[in-house]
Amino acid sequence: MNEAGQRKLPKIALYLFLGFTSILSVFPFYWMFVIGSNTNSEVNKIPPVLLPGEQFMTNVAKVFERIDFFGALWNSFVISTAITFFVLFFSSLAGYAFAKIEFKGKKFFFIFLLATMMVPPQLGLIPSFMIISSLGWVDTLQAVIVPGMVSAFGVFFMRQYVASSIPNDLIEAAKIDGCNHLRIYWNIIVPAIKPAFATLGIITYMNAWNDFLWPLIVLKDSSVHTIQIALRTLNDAYTTDYPMVLAGTFLATIPILIVFLIFNRQFIAGITEGAVKS
């Protein structure tokens, strides 16, 4: 075999591997659609059904009858968008401060921040609920938005990105030109960390969209249910209409896919930024 043929073999193997892993990644989404487009009797067949059926719109209609699907979708959109905006804003500000500003106790506060990431969030459910209840925020969207406005991981991620991507000389030159910290942040930091915004934004949006435990605790009124809580109410006490549940879940997954496709290029750029630096 000539040299050109030997070079092609690794590429072919790589493409086959990527194609196989892509199929594995897409299959759960496809399977969700298959279940959501069939009936319960067809779902319970052995061997299982592998092709989409004709009952998808019927199952979707059942979802719309049982829950306020679009109302819950809107609540999830508002909560996820608000949380993502505030996390990006506060995390980038704090990340800039920890990376480029010298102040007393800087290392202590950063270590303390990292330590909070080791605490299971379930330990804070009771005190958090007591605070939310005392403020009268139960059954309101701010009960979910406000506790999620700051992320320790977001601050850590932004701190690492700012420290590695923005040279200190650039910050010093801006200070010599008379820029204060707010102007440095807005005119230098923000444009330079757009890939990090996209990466952290997608991660935060997905986590907020898929959050289940905390909204379940503080959102009892069906008018403020998120889509995850609304889908939970589709389960009956004794029987479960799996095609109906999976049809609703399939529809609820589409907005996440749209967000990822929109910011896909920036997300990959943010993930690979550190790998291409010399």
Automatic annotation (TrEMBL):
Principal location class: membrane
Domain of life: Bacteria
PROSITE patterns, per the entry: ABC_TM1 (PS50928)
GO biological process, one term: transmembrane transport
Localization (cell): Cell membrane
ABC transmembrane type-1 domain boundaries: 73-263
GO annotations of cellular component type: plasma membrane
Keywords associated with the record: Cell membrane, Membrane, Transmembrane, Transmembrane helix, Transport
Transmembrane segments: 12-33, 72-96, 108-132, 144-163, 184-206, 242-263
Membrane topology, as annotated: Multi-pass membrane protein
Entry similarity comment: Belongs to the binding-protein-dependent transport system permease family.
PANTHER family: ABC TRANSPORTER PERMEASE PROTEIN MG189-RELATED (PTHR43744:SF12), ABC TRANSPORTER PERMEASE PROTEIN MG189-RELATED-RELATED (PTHR43744)
Protein name: Carbohydrate ABC transporter permease
Species the sequence originates in: Halalkalibacter alkaliphilus
